[in-house]
Amino acid sequence: MRSLAVASHVSPFSATRRRPHSSASGREAVSQCVKCERNQDRPLGALRIGYSQGSSQRHGSKNLFTPAAAVSVEQIEVSTYLPKGDMWSVHKFGGTCMGTPQRIQNVADVVLGDSSERKLIIVSAMSKVTDMMYSLVHKAQSRDDSYTEAVDKVFEKHMSAAKELLDGEDLARFLSQLHSDISNLRAMLRAIYIAGHATESFSEFVVGHGELWSSQMLCYAIQKCGASCSWMDTREVLVVKPSGPDMVDPDYVESEKRLQKWFSRQPAEIIVATGFIASTPENIPTTLKRDGSDFSAAIIGSLVRARQVTIWTDVHGVFSADPRKVSEAVILSTLSYQEAWEMSYFGANVLHPRTIIPVMKDNIPIVIRNMFDLSAPGTMICKQPANEDADLDACVKSFATIDKLALVNVEGTGMAGVPGTANAIFSAVKDVGANVIMISQASSEHSICFAVPEKEVAAVSAALHARFREALAAGRLSKVEVIQGCSILAAVGLRMASTPGVSAILFDALAKANINVRAIAQGCSEYNITVVLKQEDCVRALRAAHSRFFLSKTTLAVGIIGPGLIGATLLNQLREQVAVLKENMNIDVRVIGITGASRMLLSDTGVELTSWKENLQQEAKPADLPNFVRHLSENHVFPNKVLVDCTADADVASHYYDWLKKGIHVITPNKKANSGPLDQYLKLRTLQRASYTHYFYEATVGAGLPIISTLRGLLETGDKILRIEGIFSGTLSYIFNNFEGSRSFSDVVTEAKEAGYTEPDPRDDLSGTDVARKVIILARESGLRLELSDIPIESLVPEALKSCLSADEYMQKLPSFDQDWARQRHDAEAAGEVLRYVGVVDVLNKKGRVELKRYKRDHPFAQLSGSDNIIAFTTSRYKEEQPLIVRGPGAGVEVTAGGVFCDILRLASYLGAPS
User: What is the residue-averaged pLDDT of the chain?
Assistant: First the structure.
């Protein structure tokens, strides 16, 4: 067989900092690199890439590459013992940390600032360099001539960085080595270009140069500061064996021997080593694959039994969820090894799962820290901390998702009790090389479902249909079903196993966010609970679970329709209270949209409530209700969305059903929906009761008074409603409370209008229609199926004045009827009574009415003042002689907005906010 031998990169560093000699030309390097020799122990045509052990000491070599020579570690006499234990701290710096000369210098400062006795520093290539190196190989084997320009860019990047970072002899040494390396790479890439093919070993040898250059620059930078520092090419130390596609397993025994040998030659307090690259037992250069630098740090940390391994990156630590999807995600202070493992598996940007294995066996903590904010403590990954209580906040540490999956369901009665069915299913899946992400099986054995990447599901489906063709034809299997467009949501936490109710709370949170779960899986270890759901619901599910479970905080995304008197007052009340709610009650209310009749203001994360009026004028878009609703429903920042309709518009109310169907909660003081056509009302309530979407309308009757909630409480506790009677209009309450003595009716109406108690046209109040709407709402809440037209209304607008063209004309003509009103008042006073305008729900006789009635002066209805409302509930428990009475202000924007605000808080309570 022919073998290809590639020598190790020459080290420019030693304890005495001897100067490396320049390499030979690229042509000479490749001619020595591509050395062919017959190997009788291998099949014909097999190629081997290797490098000679201990090359870093051969500074007299004329070439970067020298023929491979097998060197046994046992042949080297170890003269310096490799110390192990807490004196070592291992640091790994990623590509972003090494991205510029200034950042490399910052890394050097961090290293020098560590007071540990010994330090081992692992570095990645400069930012984007690994991708550039992979691109070089791809272009060369594709015979794309632009690879030569790409090589120039790689050279320029490192040359300019070195010139800014280094000077004098150090710069000359580095540039000499860089020129030599680039020359050799050009020759190797030219060979790849001619062949039109690059083996994996050739590719990995080329790609690993980024780490060689970055680590050398860092080592020079540390030495420039006067510290003793040695440079390590980890291909001389780390030995790994391929264990699968893009996977390798470390050979700890051999690696430890080689590290001992390396240290015996170059003992130093600070060692800067290459990440990502290693060698095979045959000394063939290889890599630890993607995220390999983290793996390098963990392996070396294990070899020296380090006190801890610190992974320096550009984030503050490990988040409780992907912060790009959950803006409220927080940094976790600690994670167990198992939790970090689970999070990594499910796609969380923590560490590669294999990184945790080397340190976990020796209980070496890993700390994730931000290189760009040294004050941030980061996240420590270690054994399960003993000081955490097994409460709901601590037991679920984080949430992660995997998208672009398909669910495969194999179902049939012939599966039950038949040995080998699962084996046959997953053997077929294995044969097509598909990756099974999750498996779920019913205990009846009637079906097995599993999740695979969408790109692999076609092959899986075809394989299963082929494998079970006879079973499907015979009916033993009923179907092999593929459900596209799925995602996985995983809740991760080591303490879930010892905490009851975790699953219940998770599924309750998903249900309340209107999320349908397609499949569930949970191992007996209970490190995670995994659910499969529609991909379009994934982000919303993630936020709902995170908000409910991890943060114990309810976040509401609110859209306000109608910033008029009530809407504006509500916004001002929210402005004053949102911070208090968040601090004291864990309720986070975000107004993400405000729309009026002509303008709307939208925000993805929350309108600034201190300046909403100005922004509505200056930054608003033309009002468009469908787009406004779409903005709310498609917002994936917050899981719980609510529309607050502060209008009196029947057209807006007609959309409630569609909004509820979309999973948007609705809160309103608008009476039009509940007093409109009966069939639409019943349809709306049926939908509300069938889903976890809520519809609250306390302020439709009695403004801020608890009328609806009181009625519901009576009904839900089994009481029987006999009669509801009350003064439901704050306007008409004010008018008749002040219509006494010698005052004329028209004067009192004028006073009420000027005080803002009436509508712009007082006839809207005096007609009694508004009271009738409240009566019909209470009647329907009591179980009566009545239309608004079924309610007889005694209008207080004289027939002759109904045709007035304007409110002003009406007010001018109203005094002509003062005599009639004075007569009615005199008759009532003569009988010791007062006039009151009331609505009545007669539940026993299934009727309702609105009328002007007289009451004795000792009656509760006669004791009112101002614009108070009063409602009396006569029930089986609360008899006629002593009914249940609710009394208080029934008009005014402050109390009405307050009633709406109460409904918002009630919704938050339903969604999980603490009481």
Answer: 86
